[in-house]
Design a protein that fits this description.
With 149 residues, the chain is of the alpha+beta class. The protein contains five helices and five strands; from the N terminus they run E-H-H-H-E-E-E-H-E-H. It is globular and about 50 Å long. The N and C termini lie far apart (38 Å).
Amino acid sequence: MILSQLLPDQIANSWDVTKRAIEASTPPTTTWTPNMLNKILTSLLCGRAQCWFGYTVKGDNRKLEAVLVTSILYDDISDTRNLLIYSLFSYGIDRGSWIGIFRTLVKYAAAKNCKRIVAYTSEPGIINLAKKLGGETSQTFISLPLTKE
């Protein structure tokens, strides 16, 4: 699996595919609004977030296997930078491909002076893989909406 960060023109040209992947895998911290996808697109085009495509290559054919959106989070209180996997959507990839994706993200995060990679997930396979890669998975994410959604 090859994981590539998209450039702004590639993001714009592949927005239909990216948008569907984001819609299917938004984190629990978001609230759907009519303008939400436009805000995500703006963040991607302005560099506040990054879009990644994971694909396999066989001969002249490339097959899209995963779409990720990441963002660097800065915790002002602790002066810590972390790479957030904002959304991750896959088309049924194997464990080896997941490991390759995480290895690429580790290199990117280190180059951006991040201390860790963080993500939200309810997928048991991703949780188990994170554990096997030395990730901390014992915390529980709590979300209390202030209004009815």
